[in-house]
Amino acid sequence: MAKILVIDDDITIQLVLQHLLEKEGHEVAIAKDGKEGIRKARDWHPDGIICDWLMPGLDGLEVCRQVKAIPDLATTFFVLLTAREEVDDLVKGLDAGADEFLSKPVEPEKLLARMRAGLRTVKSAQLSRTLTQQLSQKSALLAALVEVQGCLLADNSTNGCYAQVISTLGRALDASHAYFWEASPESPNLNQIRVDWFPLQHQGSRRPGLQYPDSSYPPASWLELLAKGQVIHTTAANLPASERQIFQELDIQAVVLFPITVNGKYCGFIGCENHNRARLWDDSEMDLLRATVSAISLHLERTTAEAEKARSLAALQESEARYRAIVEDQTELICRFAPDGTLTFVNDAYCRYFGISTDAVRRGSLVPIIPDLTRDFYTDPVVTREHSLILLNGEVRIHQWTDRALFDAQNRLLGFQAVGQDITDRKRAEEEAIKALEKEKELVELKSRFISMVSHEFRTPLTTILSAADLLEYYIDNWNRTKNLEYIQRIQTAAVSMMNLLEDVLFIGRSEANKILFNPKPIQLSEFCQKILAEIKACNPTSHSIIFSEHFLDFDPAQTVVSKFGQSSPTMMALMDEKLLHQIIGNLVANSVKYSANHGRVEFQLVWGKSEVKFYVKDNGIGIPPEEIPHLFESFYRAKNTADIPGTGLGLAIVKRSVDVHGGEISVESELGKGTTFTVTLPLIKYQG
Predict the structure, then answer these.
(1) Which of 98, 271, 619, 656 has its CA 20 to 30 A from that of 24?
(2) 132: pLDDT confidence band, cut at 50, 70 and 90?
(3) At 547, which helix (H) or strand (E)?
(4) Which residues, 6+ apart, have CB-to-CB distance to 306 below 8 Å?
């Protein structure tokens, strides 16, 4: 059960205590004096120590002081055996750090009872310390993720922030080396290191030749797997002999490589190494890596879009300069018309541009512009307009024409002159620039919503964790087990809340990077839906009423059987992704409960059709403002009338992406103060069960 060290110079006491404790199921070690006891305590790390007060050499008080001064032994349950019961002696023992006193001769039942109580306290303290360490690690990883996200969101350059991101990642993962390798666009198997990081104590140990494409590390087979999107996570001991030799030469004990994609294309990987120990990274650390890779992918997409915008603007400026030169060289497309609109003249540039002769133009083969004879020429003598034209080779071009009325000295109309320019490239560049600007605005808005959500939603659980941990640190020895467990459970609940929020953010990140996996398999929808509703009821013990119903449309009666409910139902299951379907149903029903008042009613209908299945989730809650319905499925967006209700604005965004992966549709109808109905339609692949 526990490890107990007995320190006593009396062999009779040693044997008696050893017999009692081993009969109780404990593992017992004996030390005959204080020095031997301290040495064994250091090596053995016992859970409890029973030590005689009066011994030759070091007495029990000094042994207690030295043991309690050792950090790893500070929580060890220490019992002093003494025949001295004066108050001053007890005070000396407590000052030395003793946890309990027992008088000689020892009463067996009293000794065992005191040891059981003390060991329970030790176990509780060890559990609290372990939980605190785990929470500290998760908090450090979360802080690193927030730092990485903030750095990438605030940076608009193409390379300026990656050194800081990689150094933050390397420190958070306790790595010996961290790096970002960039794949060659021409050949994914050729890579070069973009940025890397070593701990300060290893700054001078960079491996020569590591950045060259012909290096034997990473192995070519690994680069092929990374290009396919596979994560490499292994130790040197698990590798074939040829690869293990490479790792031994480079002093690598463990490694993890995570591929990066931009707009669905592989562009490199993030790597971390351990040189001193063969320690693989745990799930929390892998989640940090995964989130960092997603953030870098988004940053690369954003900077690529900004670079494309800069190129578009440069192309626009080049186009304008080119057409200014055309005007200066009098190479515009010029044509003239009589007052009745008959074409009278075209210049050579006009004919060269359209690839036809002057006679063909005059015969009306290609006249893209006709004067507007209905306008008031004296009020509007000059009109500029754009005109699309399909050339003889089938190419669509856009022209800008300036139509000017010409008058003689007596202000009589002589005719018209039209000057045209091809502005196709400029218009397209303008459209690309507008698209890039809209993309930038979306990214800025998403950044603002993300930072606002993180600062608000993470503050409350972090405060709960820190306050509960502080209270446990100071009062764990004074509180009873029930009180300690209450605060431990508060820490666990807050940590679970933070992990759920982080999972939602990671889900959105995977969807933005097109990394959501779709694994359809047979599901008995009725049972599946009712199971989710039962889970929501269990997690929300409120007065809400959640009603489930199932309906069948256009089915052949020959395909039906009598169900356990006594009604006719089809003997079919549906092929769907269980995890994504849980996100759809769980988020919609949970939202209906959350945004409905007490005693609210939520109706869930499952409706089967020939080629599709529909889910209707209806409530009588607060409703949604009509002007906000188009934005409901945007990440981090929340309606104005939900300000007093906790939420992240991720639930409906996750629902929409899960529906899209299934190839389905979602719609919403709502009326303020009366309720909302969500309708999800998914294509049905029937499974004959």
Answers:
(1) 98
(2) low
(3) strand 545-552
(4) 156, 436, 440
